[in-house]
Amino acid sequence: MADLQRIVDDLAARLGRPLLLEDRVQRVIAYSEQNGAMDDIRRDSILRRHTTAEVREWLRAAGVHEAQAPLRTAGAPHLGLLPRVCVPLRHTDGLLGFLWFIDSGPAMSDVQVAEAAAAVPGLALALFHESLATGLASHRELEAVTGLLRGERDAARRLIEAGAFPQAQPVTVLVARPRSTEPDDALRLALEQGLLALRRRLSGHHPLHLVRYDHAVLLTAGPPVPPDELHAAMPVPVVVGIGRTRCELAQAADSYAEARHAAEVTARVPGLGRSAEWARLGVYRMLTQLSDQEVHPGLDGLLADEQYLPLLETLETYLDLAGSAVATSRALRLHRTSLYYRLQRVEELARTDLKDGGERLALHLSLKLARLSGRYQPRDARGGD
């Protein structure tokens, strides 16, 4: 409720006029300081926390329940009702409530109405989030999940005691990270909207969630939900990392660290696709701990010049296939003579010896590390979603 009140107070201050927020059955949820025109209906609504049946019927007949955009309603002197501007609050096409302004003393300008309408997504989302709270107020759930992902064991106890997560169930964490998008308030809102919509569909998994500045976190009871469900729920393109399932909620921080790691690798290595499990990352599990300055010194010049990309792609394929010339020729559809020529050029330019096992290992790891840093982008891995 604190978030709703903050948004209401901020909007009232920006518009310079009082407002009142109701849920979809017109029970009062929040209101700003009432320092402007006021009628008996507004006064009674605040005192009784709901609107009278006669006024509700009048406003319903005016079309407020069907409205998809701000609507001006006429006054009703016989009811003691001044003209109003009604801004419906909707989330995924469902009506959640109404934002009300008294439209007199003076009337609202079109600019003010448009500014009120611009606040709808944030208000609707906050209102929807409040409606999801089960046993915990939403802000307390947020605090508990934040503590849980920091490794605070008491946070798990609070969530379980409040009935937000079953005591005897394992936990799995998924992290959704936007692709190539700078973090901002609009992005956070999109991530929050996607997770809240998904929570409704996954109620049997006892989902919990948290939105950080550049990624979103989903916790579910039991094995992980299919990552395609998370992709489908998100309004923006994301990559998804999946941590290993842990036997109890108190260990969620470990699964979260893995899921975040997997999402970071997936974002940096397009060839992995849209989703990756931490347990299946292979060598990338350790490479993210290294600096991209650790690459083989002989590769620096090749990585810096686009003309050498075919040589690097040939080298990586050769090393991926355990140094098999036959398998590499087949994979690249390259004549054996051309393959040997390219490998010889790599040896000359990188000042290395591919018959040396230590050199092959250093070169192989260096190419994977360069993928992570973005210094090396094979053509078949570019431009993917």
What features would you describe in this structure?
With 385 residues, the protein is of the alpha+beta class. It has 3 domains: 2-131, GAF domain (Beta-Lactamase, 2-Layer Sandwich), CATH 3.30.450.40; 135-286, Alpha-Beta Plaits, CATH 3.30.70; 292-381, Arc Repressor Mutant, subunit A, CATH 1.10.10. 46% of the residues lie in helices and 14% in strands. It contains 16 helices and 10 strands. The protein has helices at residues 2-15, 40-48, 53-61, 110-118, 120-132, 138-149, 153-161, 185-201, 227-233, 252-268, 284-287, 300-303, 309-320, 325-332, 336-350, 357-373, and strands spanning 20-23, 28-31, 71-73, 84-91, 94-102, 171-178, 208-211, 216-221, 238-242, 275-277. The longest helix is centred in the middle third of the chain and has 17 residues, at 185-201. The protein is elongated, with a radius of gyration of 29 Å. It starts with a helix and ends in a 12-residue tail after the last helix. 35% of the residues are buried. The model has no long low-confidence stretch (mean pLDDT 86).
**Major beta sheet, strand line-up:** 2-1-5-4-3
Top-tier CATH class of the largest domain:
Alpha Beta
User: Which percent bin holds the helix content?
Assistant: 40-55%
> Roughly what fraction of the amino acids lie in strands?
5-15%
The general outline is elongated
* Helix-strand makeup class: alpha+beta
CATH architectural grouping of the largest domain: 2-Layer Sandwich
Uncertain residue ranges: none
What's the structural domain tally? 3
Number of strands: 10
Query: What count of helical segments does DSSP give?
Result: 16
Question: Major β-sheet, in short?
Answer: 5 strands, antiparallel
> What is the chains' assembly state?
single chain
**Fold-level CATH name of the largest domain:** Alpha-Beta Plaits
Run of helices and strands: HEEHHEEEHHHHEHEEHEHEHHHHHH
Radius of gyration: 29 Å
Euclidean distance between termini CA atoms: 38 Å
Domain CdaR GGDEF-like: 155-265
Protein name: PucR family transcriptional regulator
Organism: Nonomuraea spiralis
InterPro entries: CdaR-like_regulators (IPR051448), CdaR_GGDEF (IPR041522), PucR_C-HTH_dom (IPR025736), PucR_C-HTH_sf (IPR042070)
